[in-house]
TrEMBL record:
InterPro entries linked: AAA+_ATPase, AAA_N_dom, At3g28540-like_C, ATPase_AAA_core, Mitochondrial_chaperone_BCS1, P-loop_NTPase
UniProt name for this protein: AAA+ ATPase domain-containing protein
A Pfam family annotated for this UniProt entry: AAA_assoc
Keywords: Hydrolase, Magnesium, Membrane, Transmembrane, Transmembrane helix
Catalyzed reactions: ATP + H2O = ADP + phosphate + H(+)
SUPFAM superfamilies per UniProt: P-loop containing nucleoside triphosphate hydrolases
Phylogenetic lineage: Eukaryota, Viridiplantae, Streptophyta, Embryophyta, Tracheophyta
UniProt domain AAA+ ATPase: residue ranges: 241-391
Biological processes per GO annotation: response to stress
One annotated GO molecular function: ATP binding
Family stated for the protein in its record: Belongs to the AAA ATPase family. BCS1 subfamily.
Top-level taxon of origin: Eukaryota
Length: 490
């Protein structure tokens, strides 16, 4: 019976199959043409997307996570974690790798690795197979001009495990990488490109080599250690996890060197911002929210950086004597007013100050009295540190660093002169660098300070003579006026 049934069953010929395929293809093309002419483009895209989702839901066994570089107007910390983690997972299955370094001080340094766009990286974690791909797209209307995102593909059955165990594992590993940075970067804002440009930061300054009073150094180190360890405390009291420092004093007293020592101690990147390069408050927010956690925002010579940082009475009376408050409010939208005081303070201590964690904000100035009092109150600048002239203790640190000695017969002479002649650490260092021989270098320093003392005394004498001359001129002028008045009366 079975053989008879098999004999009656006839398979279609090849020609009939080809004929059916041609007829079906023609019918499909006719239907597609009708749909393209009858339905608008958005409707067609909607139908295609729904059909793709339907096929993916019922037939696909994979799931894709998308991790973009920006999240709610700030840097996506998950993206940063993946960016640091993935180069450590590049293996034999990775067919492309990005190499390079920006250490201009050491051109022979081994290159660092990164993941190029559209390259695939495969990872295995707790029996799960995971595939990563980096994508890039140019954005003409928004900041920044290029957006990046990672796509993580995994099995549907592993979706929950990826969320609960794999991604937290990546964040922990990335945190270890951030905590043990071998290379620090210093970033500067490129106004033309509307982005931060970076280079390797290799300043040799440390707290051991810093020419400061030991007690002052210890206070700074203790303050930094306390800040780093108090994340939960800042959260419990409802404050942003940040710390503000104001370094003020005469030029050449080591303000920039202290910033370098802080960066090396904490292993924090530096974002060096010139307020003149920022057009307005809106751009300032974009610039500052593009900085990363565990970083230092540095604004040097803030008294010279912007009109917004000067006392408001000074700005109103001297800089805009003919401009009323109403005229200020009525500036045209396309007139870039620059960074305002409120815009700057809003990031330091306002709502925008919460856009980031573990940040150090440092302002430097040569003239603290020129700053608006609103910038100086607690909560904005938490630590006010005066960087003064060189002290005997600071001199000994410099001598040990530049000359490699702890004691010398000229030390007492130098320290006595230093008590009378204000001398900056930069001036001391300049004299100590003139010779590798301690005797010659110290004699040069003594001669420099004596010359400075002599010039100071001469300046005082000239000042006294000028006062006497002015008094005599004034007296003679008054006598002449009196004589003329007498003649008029006669």
């Amino acid at each position: 019976m079975a053989s008879m049934f098999a004999g009656d069953l006839k398979l279609p010929s090849i020609s009939s199959l080809l004929s059916f395929y041609a007829s079906f293809s023609a019918l499909a093309m006719i239907i597609r043409t009708i749909l393209n002419e009858a339905l608008p483009r958005p409707v067609r895209h909607f139908i295609a997307a729904k059909f793709s989702d339907l096929v993916s839901t019922h037939f696909s066994t994979s799931f894709t996570f998308v991790i973009e570089d920006r999240w709610h107007a700030v840097t996506n910390e998950t993206f940063r974690a993946v960016q640091a983690y993935l180069p450590t997972r590049a293996g034999p299955a990775t067919n492309r790798l990005l190499l390079g370094h920006n250490d201009t001080n050491n051109t022979a340094a081994p290159p660092q690795s990164g993941i190029p766009v559209e390259a695939k990286v495969f990872d295995h974690f707790q029996g799960m197979k995971l595939e990563w791909t980096l994508h890039e797209k140019e954005t003409k209307k928004f900041y920044p001009r290029h957006s990046h995102w990672y796509e993580l593909r995994c099995s549907k059955k592993d979706k929950d495990r990826v969320m609960e165990t794999y991604l937290p594992h990546i964040c922990r590993e990335a945190q270890k990488i951030f905590n043990h940075r071998e290379v620090l970067n210093i970033h500067t804002y490129d106004n033309d490109g509307s982005s931060w440009e970076s280079t390797v930061f290799k300043h040799p300054a440390t707290f051991d080599t810093l020419a400061m009073e030991p007690e002052a150094k210890r206070r700074i180190i203790d303050d930094l250690d306390t800040f780093i360890q108090r994340k939960e405390y800042f959260q419990s009291v409802g404050r942003a996890w940040k710390r503000g420092y104001l370094l003020y004093g005469p030029p050449g007293t080591g303000k920039s060197t202290l910033v370098a020592a802080i960066a090396n101690y904490l292993r924090f990147h530096i974002y060096d911002l010139q307020l003149q390069s920022v057009k307005n408050d809106s751009e300032l927010r974009r610039v500052l929210t593009a900085t990363t956690n565990r970083s230092i925002l540095l604004i040097e010579d803030v008294d010279c950086s912007s009109k917004s940082t000067k006392p408001r009475a000074t700005r109103d009376d001297k800089e805009n004597p003919d401009e009323s408050d109403d005229e200020t409010k009525d500036r045209l939208p396309f007139d870039d007013p620059g960074v305002t005081l409120s815009g700057l303070l809003n990031f330091i201590d306002g709502l925008w100050s919460t856009c980031g964690d573990e940040r150090i904000i440092i302002f430097t100035t040569n003239h603290k009295e020129k700053l608006d009092p609103a910038m100086l109150r607690p909560g904005r600048m938490d630590v006010h540190l005066y960087m003064g002239h060189c002290t005997p203790a600071a001199f000994r640190v410099l001598a040990a660093r530049y000359l490699g000695i702890q004691e010398h017969s000229l030390y007492e002479c130098v320290e006595d002169l230093m008590q009378k002649i204000p001398t900056t650490p930069a001036e001391v260092a300049q004299q100590l660098m003139k010779s590798d021989k301690p005797e010659v270098a110290l004699e040069s320093l003594v001669e420099f300070m004596k010359t400075k003392e002599s010039e100071s005394e001469n300046s005082k004498l000239f000042t006294k003579e000028e006062v006497v001359i002015k008094q005599e001129v004034t007296k003679s002028t008054e006598e002449e006026v009196a004589e003329q008045d007498d003649k008029k009366l006669l």
